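hey m, so remember when u said the tokens were messed up on ur end? i reran from scratch. heres the input so u can diff it against urs
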Amino acid sequence: MNKRYVVGLGEVLWDVLPEGKKLGGAPANFAYHAGQFLGMDNTLAVSALGEDRLAEETVEALDEHRLNNLLPRVPYPTGTVQVTLAEGGIPTYDIKENVAWDNIPFEGDIVDIAHSCRAVCFGSLAQRNIVSRTTIQKFLDATPDDCLKIFDINLRQQFYTKEIIQESIRRCNILKINDEELVLIGRMFGYPGLDIENKCWLILGKYNLDMLVLTCGTNGSYVFTPGNVSFQETPKVQVADTVGAGDSFTGSFVASILNGNPVPVAHKKAVEVSAFVCTQNGAMPTLPPELL
């Protein structure tokens, strides 16, 4: 029997920030934070790397964080993103194209991992190229019936289409979205007039989702499940940067659900963790014992 990993699937890249470069990419961030609750040996980052020095540095950095990884080498450069921080630590991104994580192959160990996967988190960004998009779709289609499939939508620049988003929502059972993305999706799907909550109920029902997680920055967050909604206020903290905060929310929320906690308990934990991550530089800080 294959080990049942919790997988972050998609982009692994370097965020090149004003103070230097930091390892990033939503899937690795997700797997790292889930691992802090589930045990690092139970989570896995799946992506692809180039055949370059940056690939070696990636593996070294993931090993430093004790994050298991499955990163086949492909003949493209390892991914980088130029990050500039606006007022309040809000990041803007210039995401380099045609890089290794655009070309993740669905073969070998990646196929085996899919067949026994316990939970997988994926986004829209890693589906901008047909190669990785096909791999992600095949991976999701190969997972067991009880696998949690989290679509953390992550709209970046122009790297998404209505078709990619619809296909992804069809394949997931948990959708995670922020308030700005919800406005864009509302326009795209043709229901711009509905208020926030009604949009969420509509998507939850239309796509037969188990959960819809909506984050609204400083205005709190919601978890919609059929017939119920959980709301949590966002704690006021001294923000260092917000890079990876959303991924830490998703990782800790999913880990808490997998540990058997009810939605409101998992939601509260996710809010506490992401607030802490906002007070730290970079996407993968070690969580303090009281949060664990």
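this time it looks ok to me. The chain has one domain: 6-278. if urs says something different then somethings off w ur setup not the seq
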